[in-house]
Every structure is written in structure tokens, then in C-alpha cells.
Design brief:
- The complex is a heterodimer of chains A (about 80) and B (about 350).
- Chain A has about 80 residues and is mainly alpha-helical.
- Chain A is built from four helices and no strands.
- Chain B has a domain of about 210 residues: Rossmann fold.
- Chain B has a six-stranded mixed β-sheet, with helices on both faces.
- Classes of the chains: A mainly alpha (about 80), B alpha/beta (about 350).
Chain lengths: ~80, ~350
């Protein structure tokens, strides 16, 4: 996993209800696995914007970009350039 | 439950709740080890940002704000205060009457709209269709993700999702750039959320899937944000969902005192966790019966972490029982089988 993915995973473990014992794959759907709901998603977006000093345009907020750790990591990489 | 091991030393969360990890050494849950609730400084910043946003972004139609009003203490106070701070805002306050709002809460909502100077709209949907959704939510175990289930009961998640969908719809239709919800600092950490069309579409598809999972096909879009309305939104850009209670000091006793002065009357629901909805006692009973923890625990834990509620008061609220006659009455009204009542 990349550093960014590790940081995202750490956020989910400390700021959401992702149990220490739950194994999460980077391609798992965060909403389908029950890890974030719509409010959690908004908090996650806030964290990412602050932490990586990027602004996520509204049109990027789609399940394709934002529902897996892989998708989010790619999005951060793309927007950080 | 062994309190010294399982209950967080600072807030009210306990290790029997899914996803809550109590550190053996510190005795703190993961949220108390690294708190991220809005700080007093962040609250001041949020207040400035909210004021600027409300000052600069006005509606293209009849309203500037679509406000979610339940007639309970938080939303009533929020409406009164926002109009005190921004008297020129044109606000439509929508009360979603789910069929279980207490008559006093409805009177309170009307009173606050009169006092504050907001337009009052009571939104209703077909009773049997709504009751079927509540009944199916009460019977379900896996409709909502763990994260949502930790924030609220399945019935409350259903109700609030409908309100969100219909208020987004009302904002688009009326050209109002802002939607306001009086969520407390324990319920969310984000004072302002940008509502892009993509987010609205995603939010709609998540709720549609949840409704389907509970056996509800909302083909007529009675609960869901109408697709053709989102289509219109594509042309108009983003709107904002604002949670004003996160921009102000939140203190329950002050809120109740101010409300008392302007004619808001406590509804006397025999329920320490609600000042508007008669379903509440049942939803608490149902949630504890299904999942083994109180649906208000996370919100109260957040308020304790923010310092707006003492841990003792929080624990007391969680220990306070529900009204058994009210629970039985609601179970009967929802036509639930006897195992769903005490």
C-alpha cells in the first residue's frame, strides 16, 4: 500500500467505526462494507481536502472515484499534480 | 458490563458497540484518544464562514434557505437564532410530518415561524406507504451501514433520509441556495457541506438501494429526490447544506431558556431524548433490542467530547428508560408483531 492509502486507512480506523479486526482491501466498497455512510463520507472529504491541501470538485464526488481506497488514492494523486 | 474495562473513561461509548475500541492502557475510545470534534476556535471560524456565505449567496427564486424544522428544541432554536442574526433571509421552514410528530411540536413549529418570520410548510406523504417503510426499517437488521446504525436507529435513518432528499428537491425547485439542518455538534463535524449534483445523485442512489433492501420500491419518487429535479440542478451548480448549531455555542439549558421566552412549550413526551417525535421511544427500544446499544450513544459521546454535555448527564440520558406504554402504542400503530413490543 502507498503512504496515502495507509493514511486513509488510519483515518478510517481512528475517526470512524472501522474495527481493528476488520480486514479492508483497497478495492472494497466503503459504503457497501458499511464503513462510511453519507455523513461519514462528507467528513472523509473534509479530512482529505485539509490533509492534502486539495479541493475536490463536486463532479469528482462519485462512487467510481470515492468509494474505494484505491479510487481515493488515485484521485488525490491526480488532484495533487 | 464491567465499567472500568468497557466504558470509555471520557465519553459514553462502550466496547460492546461495533467498531468502538477502548484502549486498555488509557481507558479511552479511539475518538477520545484523538478527538476531532469542532473546537471553540473552529466554531468561531465556522460562524464567520457561515455569515459570509449567507451574506453573499442569495436565492434566485422565492427563498434563500430551505430549513428543516421538526418543532423540537434544536431546530426551533436554530431557526429563531438564524433569523435573529440574518433578519433579511427569506426562509421556508419545512416540517416533515411523519404522522408521529406530537401536536405540541407542530404548534411549536408554527409559533417559531411566526416569531422568527419564516414561511411554514407542513410536508406529508401517504401514511400507509410511510408506515410500511418504518415497519420494514424496524424489522430490518442490515439495511443501513454500520456507520449509519451507530449514529441513529433504522427508523430515524429512514426518516432523516427522506427529509434530506425532499429538502434538496425543495431547494432546487425553489432556487434556494442553502439547506439548513439543526444537527448538533455530536451528530456531525462539518458546519457547511457543498451539495454538488454528483453528490445529490450519489446520495439518491444510496438511499434508493437502502429502500430496496427493506422491500420498498419508490417508483413514484415519494421518498426519493426526483431524478428530473437533479437533471435541472446540473444546469445551476452547487448548493450548500449548513449546520448552524456547529457555528454557535451549544448549550441545552440556554436553548430551552431562550425558547421558553419566545413561546415554545415543552411537549412532555415522557422521553428524555426527543422533544418532537412520538416514534422516538419505540426507535430506542427497537435499536437496543436489535443491536444491544443506545442509538443516541454516539451523539451524546460527541457532545461530551465537545464539552457541551457532562459525562454524568450523558450517562444519565442513556440510562433513562423509554415510555413502555408509548412503545407498545407505536408498535401497534405500525402493525408490528408482539415480539417488537416490550
Amino acid at each position: 500500500m502507498t503512504d496515502v492509502t495507509d493514511e486513509l486507512m488510519e483515518f478510517l480506523r481512528t475517526k470512524s467505526f472501522l474495527d481493528d479486526t476488520v480486514l479492508l482491501d483497497t478495492t472494497d466498497s466503503l459504503t457497501e462494507r458499511g464503513i462510511i455512510d453519507s455523513i461519514g463520507l462528507i467528513e472523509f472529504v473534509d479530512f482529505i481536502q485539509d490533509r492534502y491541501a486539495i479541493e475536490i470538485p463536486g463532479e469528482y464526488l462519485t462512487p467510481e472515484n470515492f468509494d474505494t481506497l484505491n479510487g481515493i488514492t488515485n484521485l488525490i494523486s491526480q488532484l495533487s499534480k | 458490563m464491567n465499567e472500568t474495562v468497557n466504558l470509555c473513561r471520557r465519553c459514553v461509548l462502550h466496547s460492546a458497540m461495533p467498531g468502538v475500541n477502548i484502549d486498555h492502557e488509557s481507558g479511552l475510545c479511539q475518538f477520545c484518544r484523538d478527538p476531532s470534534e469542532i473546537s471553540p476556535q473552529e466554531r468561531i471560524e465556522a460562524h464567520k464562514d457561515m455569515d459570509a456565505l449567507l451574506h453573499h449567496t442569495r436565492g434566485s427564486g422565492q427563498f434563500d434557505v430551505i430549513y428543516a424544522l421538526s418543532g423540537g428544541k434544536d431546530s426551533s432554536y436554530g431557526l429563531y437564532r438564524i433569523k435573529q442574526e440574518h433578519p433579511d433571509l427569506r426562509i421556508r421552514a419545512i416540517l416533515f410530518d411523519n404522522g408521529f410528530i406530537s401536536p405540541q411540536a407542530i404548534r411549536n413549529a408554527r409559533t417559531i415561524c411566526d416569531v422568527a418570520g419564516a414561511e411554514f410548510l407542513r410536508l406529508t406523504v401517504q401514511e400507509e406507504f410511510l408506515n410500511r417503510a418504518f415497519r420494514n426499517a424496524a424489522q430490518s437488521h442490515d439495511v443501513y451501514p454500520d456507520a449509519a446504525r451507530l449514529r441513529a436507529s433504522d427508523i430515524c435513518n429512514t426518516c432523516i433520509s427522506i427529509v434530506k432528499q425532499k429538502l434538496m428537491e425543495a431547494a432546487v425547485v425553489s432556487g434556494a441556495p442553502h439547506i439548513m439542518f439543526a444537527f448538533t455538534p455530536g451528530q456531525t463535524r462539518s458546519p457547511v457541506i457543498r451539495l454538488s449534483p454528483a453528490f445529490m445523485r450519489w446520495s439518491r442512489s444510496l438511499f434508493e438501494a437502502q429502500l430496496k433492501k427493506m422491500g420498498i420500491a419508490d417508483d413514484d419518487e415519494i421518498f426519493l429526490l426526483k431524478k428530473d429535479v437533479i437533471g435541472r440542478e446540473e444546469q445551476n451548480g452547487a448548493r450548500y447544506m449548513i449546520h448552524p448549531l456547529l457555528a454557535w455555542d451549544y448549550d441545552e439549558s440556554t436553548i430551552l431558556r431562550i425558547l421558553g421566552d419566545i413561546g415554545w412549550v415543552p411537549p412532555g413526551l415522557r422521553d428524555k431524548n426527543s422533544t418532537n417525535c412520538l416514534l422516538n421511544s419505540f426507535t430506542i427500544f427497537n435499536h437496543i433490542q436489535k443491536y444491544g446499544f443506545h442509538p443516541y450513544a454516539c451523539e451524546i459521546a460527541g457532545l461530551v467530547r465537545c464539552g457541551t454535555m457532562s459525562r454524568e448527564d450523558g450517562l444519565e440520558k442513556l440510562k433513562s428508560g423509554v415510555s413502555i406504554p408509548l412503545v407498545k402504542d407505536i408498535a401497534e400503530k405500525l402493525a408490528l408483531s408482539p415480539e417488537f413490543a416490550p
